[in-house]
Every structure is written in structure tokens, then in C-alpha cells.
Design goal:
The complex is a heterotrimer of chains A (289), B (294) and C (441). Chain A contains 13 helices and no strands. With 289 residues, chain A is mainly alpha-helical. The radius of gyration of chain A is 24 Å and the shape is globular. Chain A starts with a helix and ends in an 8-residue tail after the last helix. Chain B is mostly helical. The model of chain B has no long low-confidence stretch (mean pLDDT 89). Chain C is α/β, with parallel strands linked by helices and 441 residues long. Helices cover 42% and strands 12% of the residues of chain C. In chain C, strands 1, 2, 3, 4, 5, 6, 7, 8 and 9 form a nine-stranded mixed beta sheet that branches. The longest helix of chain C has 22 residues. The termini of chain C are far apart. Classes of the chains: A mainly alpha (289), B mainly alpha (294), C alpha/beta (441). Chains A and B meet through α1, α3, α4, α5 and α6 of A and α1, α3, α4, α5 and α7 of B.
């Protein structure tokens, strides 16, 4: 019995250590974001002497994080809407209808799970760049690179395999009676899909939205590559990298940590609100790339 | 007949946009990775010259690429082993032991997974700072003398990145294994307990075999994900430095793209593609076991 | 909810589309078309170039039309391909897109040697008498090496070794004038637990290396190294050069390499401010960059040129420089040259100086702020200006930038992971390949 108790203590210590290693740095960043610049040169464990909110104002206005935030909201929202509009009907058909080419498509999308967008970001960039050159010769201006909408389209497209895989596995599990009832009532295929099936798939749809929101919001390599113009629009993570890496005035630690907080706050709030759904949903989406 | 036609056009309408986008932004670029590795194209002119296998020939002799490969392999092995061991351990603790604050731990452990890698690199920049860093000051307090470990020096930088990656990944996999572990029927453990099997034996003889399918799938995807995550961490934390000591294959590939050597960059891309597929297949084969049912 | 988001997105897209449509400009051939890169100077305090154009019109009566873009290459590059040329362009060499280099290569620039003999509008001085010495003699302005000027020098910014003046005063140390004095100071500092040297990232060695090349062997040695000449590292100068670099690495603060990345480099700059290292190579911008950092008591920025190799030898300070030029296809070439000559007037220099953009003209230091006065006076204190860059070579697979071989390994030299011999051998191997691929062979 005694060894059992010892083991339990050991378990608690391990759990606490990990929890501390996560909570302390994150909390530290929050505290650091309201510290004045001179407070960064002493003991790192000292508490902030006051609530220096100017860091956030500077990050928001001077460092452009406000503008980047808006860009990120636009890109993430557009990408999510595009993704749902495109993936839902496709996943539904791939799950519920028998048609020629279905198996090939299913295999292709499943294979897509293994392709990480960062493997192919260079050809995507070149494709858009060549497209721009072509458009320039034709109309005198290209719009494919440095375009928030195109970035959102790339996000949505590269999220298709995961999303279709997840939704399809749900649609497959539904009995066919639902649709048959709809058809008997004289509803069209489209109406049946939208009015009967999609509402039932709500939990899966929410999972899809949550996971893709996190990945779109946090993504920075594709954004860095496709929004490359020196003074052009940036998304929040890329703006944060610029803030951390010397493009702005350096040694402004308070502003930097305020920027850090601005990027993680929306995801943290969302997480606190839906953490149960998120962790439940991920057992289905176990293949996150 | 009419119904059939209607059904077909409905299916086409539903499937076409997804298929089209999937081909434009995933299939075509993937094929292009392989095609372009045989070409060289100028940074400012889109003309391409066929150079055969020359890019690969240069690649295997490029010392920076070799270092990048070594780092990538080290990170895959080290991060995978440590993450899986810890994730399984913590998942077992939280499901099998009656731990108070169970759900709080779960919520906290998952936090790093929802943060952007850029944010994590900012957090670890504060942790790894030589002079006023959280880690060094903590070590100083415990050892009683001033510690100044150079966490981002040539010797330690890859290990420092590995620690950050494990920190980020544990929670996600732990939550995943908790779900599958809680599906294992309690009665199995009870009868094993009556037979006198201790916790370690129970873990290796009951828990592990029963969630093995889950471990296998996640392992395959984890390897692919690690190749990618290593790039994200390196790019945000060290930019490959000092003197290329923390370069990984994808960051090498991206660096060559920045230098305008698209063909060469894609040759590195081909290597990482083939490597990750081969490794996934290998792991999949090596972890093959008879599927157990409860 | 979804509907609202959608309508928001659509309206956002519409608005951006509308603005994009407003960008068209009316074509007026009468006006002098000025195209300038909107760089840091313009960004921090907008309106600089508009002010210049207005003042120019007042002085000469010539109307101008200004294009001001951060991605100037994209904007004028496309229009020049379509045959629409700006008359005057401010765009330096050495930018990523390399548009200026491309025009140089294609011999698409108008010769500007005659601008030197023009009288500055509103003043009775010729351009060549107003320009500071040495600025129209390098490849940066005379790209073909034939004594003819095709690009005129604009904003410049000296680089050197930055240090804490207050600390030197407090300790009674002298700023070394030769490398031998430098090493002696290194020993003295070591006794006080201060390293002699640090650097933000190895990228900052560019200006340092160029200055050192000049200091070691004058312009001849600089040309040899930057053109990757064979055997240059076996010469006396070559050996001296490598000796100085490796010895300096051994005097560098050991923390430096682990912080020499894009994210932590300001911590290395901080070392100088907090008396953990004496010198670092840097540019004048560091003062603004570190304005909010907390320094040691009595800290005061100082900047010095690189020490001479032997007593009585030349000391050099590298300078960054931007250029202004006239494309061959420009329609108003005469007015364009008048515009360039106006750039060196006191009036124009004053407008630029308000944004810390400094023109290479005599007595410019009286227009400057206190800090800048100090830095720009480095040439008045006897240092020579070093200008130039590594010669361009075709990008080849497996062959990186000169920085990869000359600068980056210094991190490993400092941490002791490579030897001097390895360092030199890698340079020799790489420069052999660079030489084979030189563009202007």
C-alpha cells in the first residue's frame, strides 16, 4: 500500500511539473506585456511595477498589429467560409453516393493527408508568381500574390483533405433513412442535403471549424511567402515575427510581449470557451498533419 | 432516367469545386516539386533549363544540407520518442489513477497546442535568454551560483528546439490517448489486479496493446508533422543559426528558394518527400501487430 | 452570424477593389517624372519627397510628378518594360530585386558625368565642388570602371565600430588606432571581465570586412578579394586579414554566437551598452534602434573607423550609399539632370537632413543632430571612405552567398568549433566557384 502512495505522489509531482512548465511561461508573457521597458533588465521573476498599457497601444498602432489583426480576421473568416462551402457538399457526395471516380477521389483526398502545405509552398508561390507575370503582360497588373483572398483560397484548398476525411467519416455513419424521408417529401437533392443532413452534422462541422480556425489563425509560412511585398498587408503571426526580428525598433520588449499576447489571446479565449468540444472532436480528427 | 441525370449533375456540382481546388493547389504543386528538381530556373526570368540529376548530385555533397538532414533525423527520433513516452505516461496517469483536478490538468496540457509557433518561439526566447532567461535564472536559484548556459549555441541549439517541440506536442497526443484509454473496459484491469499484476505490467500488457492501432496511426502522422514543425520552430527561433547549426531540411529548402535557386530548392523538397513517405511506410510496417479487441 | 461575416467580407473586398482602381495616374509628358523608393527615411516621417519636388519647382519652375513606392521595382519595372520610363529614379544597387543592377548590365543608364560640371540651381557652386571627396570614384557610381559616372551618390550612412564612450573616459582608455593597440586593449579589458568584441549577427560583418580589406591592402586588395581572385589568401595581405579576423574572434564575448540570430541580436548590441563588450560593428541606425534600451551608467555612443594595420597606416570606415540615376529611355533628360544637380543644394540637403537622410556634400554635418554629427564626422577625423561590395556571380546550386563563407563561420570560430585553416580552406574552395561564375567577366 505504501508503494502505491509513493507512486501516486510521484504522479502528482510529474503532473504538476508539466502544468507549471506550461502555465508559468504563458503567464509570464502576460505579465511581461504590461511591464515598462526598463523592468526587463533586472530579475526576470519580478512582478510588474504597474500596469503599463501603453505597450498594447504601441503594438496596436505603431507596430501595425491592429491592421494585421484585421487582415488575419478577414483571411481566417474567408478561408473558413470557402472551406465549408466547398468541402461539405463534396464530403457528403463522396460518402453517400455511388458514382464513377468516387474511389479514385477518395484515395486522392486520403493521400492528400500526407502532403503538408509547407512541402509545396514553393511551387504554389511560383505558380502564382508566373500567373502574375502572365496577367501583367495581358492587363498590366497581377493580383495573385499579395492578395488576402488568394491566401484564404490556398488555406481552404490545402485544408480540404483533412476536412473532407473528417466530414466523410461522419456522413458514412448516418443511416440512409434520413434522405429517403426527404426524397419522399419531394425535396430535391440539394434541399435534402442542406436542410436535413447538414444540421445533423453540426458537431462535426464545429470540430472542422475549430481545428481549421486554429491552423489558419496560427499559420505563418504560407502567409510569409504569398504576402511578400515589403509594405503590403501581413497577417498577425507574420507581423509578430517582424516585431520580434528587428524590422521595427528593437529592444522594446514590452511592446513585443504585448504583440505576443495579442496573437494568442483570441485563441486562448476560444479555447476556454470550447475546450470540451475541441478535445472531444480531436478523437475523430486524430490525423492532424 | 431523368432522376439519374439530376443526381449526376448534383454530384458533379458538389464534387467539382473541391476536386478542382485540390488539383490546382495540392496535386499540381506536388508534381511540380518533382518536375522542377530536374530543372534550374533564373530568379528573375521564368526560363527553365533541364539539368537532369545535377541538382541532386550537388545536394548530396552540400555540407549544409547534410547537417540539415542530420538535424531533421535527430529531431524526428528524439521528439517522437520523448513526446510519445510522456504523452502515454500522462494519459495513463490521468485515466487510470484517480487524480484530483483531472480535467484541469487536461485543459492546461493542451494549451501549447493552440498557440502559434511564432508565439511559442517568443515564449522560449524569454525562457532561453542567457542573461535574464527564465531557465538560467531558475537553474541559478537551485544551484546557488550564477548559471549561464548558452541554450542557442552551436552545441545545444538543436536540443533546445527539441525541448520546445516536445512542450508543444505532449498535450495534443495525451488528450488523444486519454480518449482511447478510457474506452478500455475497467473489468480487464480488475481481473488483472486480482491476478497480482502491478501497474507497470497492466500498462504494458493491457493498455498499450489495446490502443496500439491508435498509436500506430498517430505515429505515422506525427513523423510527417515533426518534419514540418521542426521547420516552423527553426524559422521562428533561430533562422537556422548559428552558422547553420540548427538548419533542418525544410528550412534549407526554403532558404534556397529565397536565394532564387528554385530547382535546387525543389531537389531538397523531393528528398524530404521521399524520406517522409519511406519513413512512414517503414514505421507502419515495423509497428504492425495483431489487432486486439476488447 | 455567418451571413454577417460574409457581407462584411464582401464589403471589405469591394472597398479594396475600389481603392485599387484609384491608382491610375494621368499621363502628362510635360511633367518631370520622378520615381523614388519609399524607404525608412520616408516611412518614419512622410512627405520628404513631396517637399523636395515642391521646392524644386519653386527653384526652377519645372513641374514634377512623383511616384513613391515601397516596391518601386515592381511598379516601374513593369512600366519600363512597356516603354514608359520615369525620368529620374532613386533606387540603390544591392536590393533584392536587383533592378538597378539589371539596367547597369544592359547599359540602359544615361551617362551623368556632365552633371558634375553643372551649377546647382539657386547656388553658384558646381556639383563636383560641393560633393564630398571619394563618392564618385567607385564602382557604385562608375559601374564600368571607365571613369564615367552613370549613377550619382545620394544618402549615405557611415559604418564603423561602436563603443561606449563613457566607459573609455571612466577607465582612461584610448580608442585604439592600430590593431596592435586593439589587442593590448583586449588584454586590459579581459582583466576587468569585459570582452573586446561582439557583433549583432554575422551579417553585420559586411561593412567591417570591406573596411578591413581597405585597411589591410588598400583598394587593390579590396578589388582582389571582392572579385575572388585566385591566390589572394596566400599573399601577405590575405594572411594578415585572416589573422586579424581569427584573433578578433578569440577576443569575442562567448555569449555572442548563441544570440547572433534575427530574434536575439539586440541582446548582443546591448552588451556594448552594458559594458560586457567594448566594440561592435554597426551602422548609425543602432542609436535609434536601441533608444529605449537601458544602458550602464554614464553610457554614451561613440563610433570609430577601423584601426590601421600598422602605425601611420590608413584607417577606413565603410559607408552605405544610395544612388539616383536616369534611364536611357527617359524623355526629359535635361530636366532630369537639373533635378539631380538640385539634390546637392543646401535647401534639398536640409529637407533630407530633417529625416536623418544625409547627402554626401561638404559641411553637411552642420545640418545634423548631435549624435549624427559625431558619426558623420568620422571622415573629417582622418578616416577614408570605403565603398563597394562583393562582385555579383550567377547563382549556382550548392554555392551560397559570400556571407555564408566569409561571415557566418565566425560564429564557429568564436565557439572554437572550426580552426583558422578550415575557415580559410572553405573560403578558397567557395571563391574558386564564385570566380568561375562571375557575371562581368
Amino acid at each position: 500500500m505504501n508503494s502505491n502512495k509513493l507512486f501516486k505522489t510521484f504522479v502528482y509531482i510529474c503532473l504538476l511539473l508539466l502544468a507549471i512548465s506550461i502555465l508559468v511561461p504563458v503567464a509570464w508573457v502576460f505579465l511581461a506585456s504590461v511591464k515598462e521597458n526598463k523592468e526587463f533588465y533586472g530579475n526576470p521573476w519580478s512582478l510588474p511595477q504597474g500596469f503599463y498599457f501603453k505597450n498594447f497601444l504601441d503594438a496596436w498602432n505603431k507596430a501595425g498589429m491592429g491592421e494585421y489583426m484585421l487582415n488575419s480576421v478577414i483571411v481566417t473568416a474567408t478561408a473558413l467560409v470557402l472551406l465549408l462551402v466547398i468541402a461539405l457538399p463534396a464530403a457528403y457526395c463522396l460518402a453517400r453516393f455511388n458514382f464513377r471516380g468516387r474511389n479514385i477521389l477518395n484515395t486522392a483526398f486520403a493521400a492528400g493527408l500526407f502532403i503538408n502545405v509547407n512541402y509545396i509552398v514553393v511551387p504554389i508561390f511560383l505558380m502564382l508568381k508566373d500567373g502574375d507575370t502572365f496577367l501583367k503582360n495581358l492587363f498590366g497588373g497581377g493580383f495573385l500574390l499579395n492578395n488576402l483572398f488568394v491566401l484564404a483560397l490556398v488555406y481552404a484548398s490545402t485544408a480540404l483533405p483533412f476536412t473532407i476525411y473528417l466530414l466523410r467519416s461522419y456522413f458514412v455513419s448516418l443511416p440512409f433513412e434520413f434522405e429517403e424521408a426527404g426524397y419522399i417529401d419531394g425535396a430535391s437533392y440539394f434541399k435534402t442535403m442542406v436542410k436535413i443532413i447538414f444540421p445533423m452534422a453540426r458537431p462535426s462541422i464545429i470540430t472542422v471549424i475549430l481545428f481549421n480556425f486554429l491552423s489558419f489563425w496560427n499559420e505563418y509560412i504560407v502567409s510569409l511567402t504569398l504576402l511578400s511585398a515589403a509594405g503590403g498587408s501581413k497577417t498577425l503571426p507574420v507581423g509578430l515575427i517582424n516585431l520580434m526580428q528587428g524590422q521595427q525598433a528593437k529592444a522594446q520588449y514590452g511592446v513585443m510581449y504585448a504583440g505576443l499576447v495579442l496573437v494568442m489571446l483570441p485563441t486562448l479565449i476560444l479555447y476556454v470557451a470550447v475546450q470540451k468540444k475541441l478535445t472531444e472532436g480531436m478523437t475523430v480528427g486524430g490525423v492532424k498533419g | 432516367m431523368k432522376k439519374h441525370k439530376r443526381q449526376n449533375s448534383f454530384i458533379a456540382l458538389c464534387v467539382a469545386p473541391a476536386t478542382l481546388l485540390f488539383f490546382i493547389f495540392m496535386v499540381y504543386p506536388t508534381i511540380d516539386v518533382f518536375r522542377m528538381s530536374f530543372f534550374e530556373r533564373g530568379a528573375y526570368s521564368p526560363t527553365e533549363n533541364y539539368v537532369g540529376l545535377q541538382n541532386f548530385g550537388v545536394l548530396i555533397k552540400d555540407t549544409r544540407f547534410i547537417v540539415a538532414c542530420q538535424n531533421t533525423i535527430f529531431l524526428i527520433v528524439a521528439v517522437t520518442i520523448v513526446t510519445f513516452a510522456l504523452a502515454l505516461f500522462f494519459a495513463a496517469c490521468l485515466t487510470r489513477e484517480k487524480v484530483r483536478g483531472n480535467s484541469i490538468f487536461r485543459v492546461v496540457f493542451y494549451i501549447p497546442n493552440i498557440l502559434s509557433v511564432v508565439v511559442i518561439s517568443g515564449v522560449f526566447s524569454a525562457i532561453y535568454d542567457t542573461k535574464n532567461g527564465l531557465l538560467n535564472s531558475l537553474l541559478s536559484i537551485f544551484s546557488g551560483k550564477a548559471v549561464s548556459v548558452l541554450w542557442k549555441s552551436e552545441e545545444l541549439v538543436v536540443i533546445s528546439i527539441a525541448i520546445a517541440m516536445v512542450w508543444q506536442a505532449i498535450g495534443y497526443y495525451m488528450v488523444m490517448y486519454m480518449a482511447s484509454m478510457s474506452a478500455v473496459p475497467e473489468s480487464l484491469y480488475e481481473s488483472a489486479g486480482l491476478d497480482g499484476a502491478d501497474k507497470l505490467t497492466q500498462f504494458f500488457n493491457i493498455t498499450l496493446p489495446l490502443i496500439w492501432t491508435n498509436i500506430r496511426t498517430t505515429l505515422t502522422f506525427f513523423i510527417i508533422s515533426t518534419i514540418n514543425m521542426a521547420f516552423l520552430f527553426v524559422k521562428a527561433m533561430t533562422s537556422g543559426g548559428p552558422n547553420g547549426a540548427s538548419e533542418v531540411v525544410l528550412s534549407f529548402m526554403y532558404g534556397q528558394k529565397d536565394a532564387g535557386l528554385y530547382g535546387y530548392s525543389m531537389a531538397a523538397g523531393v528528398v524530404i518527400f521521399l524520406f517522409s513517405f519511406a519513413l512512414s511506410a517503414l514505421v507502419n510496417k515495423a509497428t504492425e501487430r495483431e489487432v486486439l479487441q476488447y | 452570424m455567418l451571413k454577417r461575416i460574409l457581407s462584411l467580407i464582401i464589403s471589405a473586398l469591394l472597398i479594396t477593389g475600389l481603392f485599387a482602381g484609384c491608382g491610375e495616374k494621368e499621363q502628362m509628358d510635360k511633367k518631370l517624372k520622378v520615381a523614388a523608393l519609399s524607404s525608412g527615411y520616408e516611412e518614419t516621417m512622410p512627405g520628404m519627397w513631396q517637399e523636395i519636388c515642391d521646392a524644386f519647382e519653386k527653384a526652377t519652375g519645372i513641374k514634377t510628378e512623383l511616384t513613391l513606392e515601397k516596391n518601386l521595382e515592381d511598379v516601374i519595372g513593369a512600366s519600363m518594360q512597356g516603354g514608359d520610363y520615369p525620368d529620374v529614379v532613386l533606387l540603390a544597387t544591392g536590393r533584392e530585386a536587383g533592378l538597378t543592377e539589371q539596367l547597369i548590365k544592359d547599359k540602359n543608364l544615361t551617362e551623368l558625368t556632365d552633371v558634375l560640371d553643372m551649377t546647382i540651381p539657386g547656388e553658384n557652386v558646381k556639383v563636383k565642388d560641393k560633393l564630398s571627396g571619394g563618392f564618385t570614384e567607385s564602382v557604385a557610381t562608375n559601374p564600368y570602371g571607365d571613369g564615367k559616372t552613370y549613377l550619382m551618390p545620394m544618402f549615405y550612412s557611415p559604418c564603423g565600430l561602436f563603443y561606449n564612450k563613457g566607459l573609455f573616459k571612466e577607465k582612461g582608455w584610448e580608442v585604439p588606432e592600430t590593431w596592435d593597440e586593439m589587442w593590448a586593449l583586449g588584454e586590459k579589458a579581459k582583466a576587468e571581465n569585459i570582452a573586446l568584441f561582439t557583433y549583432p549577427t554575422t551579417g553585420y560583418f559586411d561593412s567591417f570586412f570591406f573596411s578591413l580589406m581597405y585597411a589591410v591592402g588598400g583598394p587593390e586588395f579590396f578589388d582582389k578579394v571582392t572579385n575572388y581572385e585566385k591566390g589572394v589568401w596566400e599573399t601577405e595581405e590575405g594572411k594578415t586579414f585572416i589573422d586579424i579576423v581569427t584573433k578578433l574572434a578569440s577576443y569575442t564575448n562567448k555569449k555572442t554566437p548563441s544570440q547572433a540570430n534575427d530574434q536575439d541580436f539586440s541582446k548582443n548590441q546591448l552588451m556594448v551598452m552594458q559594458n560586457e563588450a567594448l566594440f561592435m560593428p554597426n551602422g548609425t541606425w543602432v542609436v535609434g534602434e536601441m533608444a529605449d534600451a537601458v544602458a550602464a551608467d554614464g553610457f554614451e555612443w561613440g563610433m570609430t573607423a577601423l584601426p590601421a594595420v600598422a602605425a601611420g597606416g590608413d584607417s577606413y570606415a565603410y559607408t552605405w550609399m544610395e544612388q539616383i540615376w536616369v534611364p536611357k529611355g527617359a524623355k526629359n533628360q535635361k530636366d532630369a539632370k537639373t533635378f539631380i544637380s538640385y539634390m546637392y543644394s543646401d535647401e534639398a540637403a536640409g529637407i533630407f537632413a530633417k529625416r536623418n537622410a544625409v547627402q554626401p556634400i561638404k559641411d553637411v554635418s552642420k545640418l545634423l543632430s548631435e549624435d549624427n554629427k559625431l558619426f558623420y564626422s568620422v571622415y573629417e577625423n582622418g578616416a577614408k571612405a570605403a565603398i563597394g561590395n562583393f562582385a555579383a556571380y550567377k547563382s549556382v546550386a550548392g554555392l551560397g552567398n559570400p556571407a555564408d563563407y566569409f561571415f557566418a563561420p565566425i560564429n564557429s570560430l568564436v565557439s572554437g568549433n572550426i580552426t583558422k585553416e578550415q575557415y580559410v580552406n572553405d573560403i578558397i574552395k567557395a571563391t574558386d566557384k564564385m570566380r568561375e561564375n562571375l557575371i562581368n567577366k
